[in-house]
Amino acid sequence: MTRRTRFPAPGPREGLWLWYGIGEDGHALRETAFDRSLPAPPAGDPLYRTDCRTGGIADGGASVAASRDALRSTLKQLGPDGPRFYETVYGVLTDGPVEVPTGAEDVTGAEFERAWDTASRHRRFTRHRTGPLPEGSLVTGTVTALPWGPGLT
User: Quick check: helix, strand or coil at residue 152?
Assistant: First the structure.
């Protein structure tokens, strides 16, 4: 059974809210993080940009929207370089068991999915200036999806 929870990041990181879907082994299956210091991207839905402390989903932009299954799939599909590409776009999953502090709030599946969808959208529409390839690199391959629709490339 998956436990879904959210809590503010421990320590000095004020304004950082962590959301976890935790498996039976205590490891994160999916993880999102909303950071007040990051702006939500222009494509972000303002409905979701409400204060986490008052029951909203996101206060700021998403710094992580990572899934263990998606990371495995990317590794299988792209080989050893796949995880670096995935982590550039979606962030890095917590390594090891998740330490849930006392006072963490369990959330419903629907609340978690709403936060997950928002964070994933934020990460996909955020420009990434760093990554596994230097800017200007030429790569070969096949485009499998166009986020802006056909005919606009």
Answer: coil
pLDDT top residue among 41 and 2: 2
Nearest-CA neighbor of 64 among 101, 18, 13, 6? Answer: 18
pLDDT by residue (tens digit) across 127-142?
A: 666 665 666 767 777 7
Nearest CA to 65 among 44, 45, 87? 87
Res. 152 pLDDT band, cuts 50 70 90 = low
Question: b/e map of 74-88 (b: 16 or more CB within 10 Å)?
Answer: beeeeeeebbeebbb
pTM of the model: 0.76
By residue range, what is the domain housing residue 44? 3-124
Cα–Cα distance between 16 and 103 in angstroms, integer?
Answer: 16
CB 21 within 8 A of CB 30: yes
Q: What is the pLDDT of residue 82?
A: 85
78 lies in some domain: yes
Spatial CB neighbours of 59, under 8 Å, sequence gap ≥ 6: 15, 17, 34, 36, 49, 50, 51, 52, 53
**Does 8 fall in a domain?**
yes
Q: Is residue 64 part of a domain?
A: yes
